[in-house]
Design brief:
Blueprint: H1 3-13, H2 24-37, E1 48-50, E2 71-74, H3 76-79, H4 83-89, H5 107-121, H6 124-136, H7 143-155, H8 169-175, E3 177-179, E4 182-184, H9 189-197, E5 201-210, E6 214-221, E7 224-232, H10 237-250, E8 255-260, E9 263-271, E10 281-286
Antiparallel strand pairs: 1-2, 3-4, 5-6, 6-7, 8-9, 9-10
Helix pairs in contact: 2-6, 2-10, 4-5, 5-7, 6-10
Domain EndoU: 23-288
EC number: 4.6.1.-
Signal peptide: 1-18
Length: 288
């Protein structure tokens, strides 16, 4: 049996249709649906306040232009009580920042991963993403199959350095890592806020702030420089998982361009190129 035929049969057995070509209009439609469905999003000036301070004008700059923190306030009591936020935050201390050190996942951590996936799958945002992916032939019609797909994309361990199982898509995107004396990943505002609050992250200033709560900034984390990094601010964990998953499955390794309520957005995702038997996410972020 040919490899291509076998692949088609496997997709059929898993309840996945043949994948359709996805247009920018398709992406705009689903992204707008996800954005408008994000009832757990935090709203600036209601749930949190930012203190942007000075704008950085050169990517070569390594000068701290911000005397204060980026987040001047955040309603933790309200936001962190939300189930998806609580389950998300529980995962953030499960990882070793330095690449090249094997990540051992305990049974407790595995249960936390599963609890997080279960919680985001309850949300309208994630259900809309699944419906889109299923309709377009990128995901299973089975709830168990879709959860397994998310688990594989986000939590499969692989090597980023020295051949050791030292990373995963979730760790890189949402927690952050240190490789070759530089911060990589860490594209999430909740982790940024918590690390800044704990004194582990020093905000240096911002390059640009755009519509759809996007910001590109510079900082030191664990005394290691992030020369430039972008993230959404205020979006819920389920929104980011949903949008990045849609872009990763439909536009991996290329710009995922769309408009949300008329505002332009470009998301970049990469897969783990040396693993060819399944799709595993290497990175995802708004290309601000």
């Amino acid at each position: 049996m040919g490899i291509r035929l076998l692949g088609v049969l496997l997709l059929t057995w898993c309840g996945v249709k043949s994948a359709q070509v996805i247009s920018d209009n398709d992406l705009s439609t689903i992204a707008t649906t996800l954005w408008n469905s994000d009832s757990n999003a935090a709203i600036e000036d209601r749930d949190f306040r930012l203190n942007l301070q000075r704008k950085i004008t050169s990517y070569n700059s390594r000068t701290d232009l911000a005397s204060s923190k980026l987040f001047s306030s955040l309603d933790e009591k309200k936001l962190f009580a939300k189930p998806t936020y609580a389950k998300f935050i529980a995962l953030l201390n499960n990882y070793i920042a330095q690449t090249g050190r094997t990540e051992s996942v305990s049974s407790t951590e595995q249960r936390e991963n599963e609890a997080f996936l279960d919680e985001v799958l309850k949300t309208t945002v994630m259900q809309e993403a699944w419906k889109f992916l299923q309709t377009k032939g990128y995901s299973s019609s089975s709830a168990t199959g879709f959860k397994g797909q998310l688990r594989s994309i986000w939590f499969t361990a692989y090597s980023r350095a020295q051949g050791r199982q030292d990373t995963s898509g979730f760790e890189h995107v949402f927690v952050g890592e240190i490789k070759n004396n530089a911060v990589t990943g860490l594209h999430n505002w909740i982790q940024f806020y918590l690390q800044e609050k704990a004194g582990q992250l020093n905000y240096y200033g911002y390059f640009v702030q755009r519509q759809l709560e996007q910001i590109k900034l510079q900082y030191k984390w664990l005394n290691t420089m992030k020369a430039a990094g972008s993230m959404f601010v205020g979006t819920s964990p389920e929104f980011e998982i949903a949008l990045y998953t849609v872009c990763f499955l439909t536009r991996p390794d290329q710009p995922c361009e769309m408009r949300i309520n008329g505002n332009y957005l470009r998301v970049i995702t990469y897969d783990v190129s040396y693993i060819t038997n399944k799709k595993i996410l290497a990175s995802a972020y708004p290309d601000t």
